[in-house]
Amino acid sequence: MRLSKQQADMITVEAKDIFGPNARVKLFGSRMDDNKRGGDIDLLVELPHPVMQPVLASARLEARLMQVLGLQKIDVIVSAPNIASTPIHAVAAQGIVL
């Protein structure tokens, strides 16, 4: 995994602040592979409860993470009971829990 423990902890803290204490964050995509370089940070936030305005909440998380991690490309996908699952959700669900 190409995130430091400190970065992973910051991501988790910010996600729980925005989405609630039951939010679980997974890293997926190229950052899971230690042999690759670069790439954006792809995150899946899994929630056991419905979320209101998921697009706004994920944008808020992206903005906060850019502030604490520095300007870089961050993509956030949200999975919740009230959000229709798409193929990217299945891919992201195979990620590493932070």
UniProtKB/TrEMBL annotation:
MF terms (GO), sorted A to Z: nucleotidyltransferase activity
Sequence ranges assigned to domain Polymerase nucleotidyl transferase in this UniProt record: 16-57
Keywords assigned by UniProt, alphabetized: Transferase
Database matches in CDD domains: NT_KNTase_like
Xref: SUPFAM superfamilies: Nucleotidyltransferase (SSF81301)
Organism: Rheinheimera lutimaris
Listed name of the protein: Nucleotidyltransferase domain-containing protein
Record flagged with keyword Transferase: yes
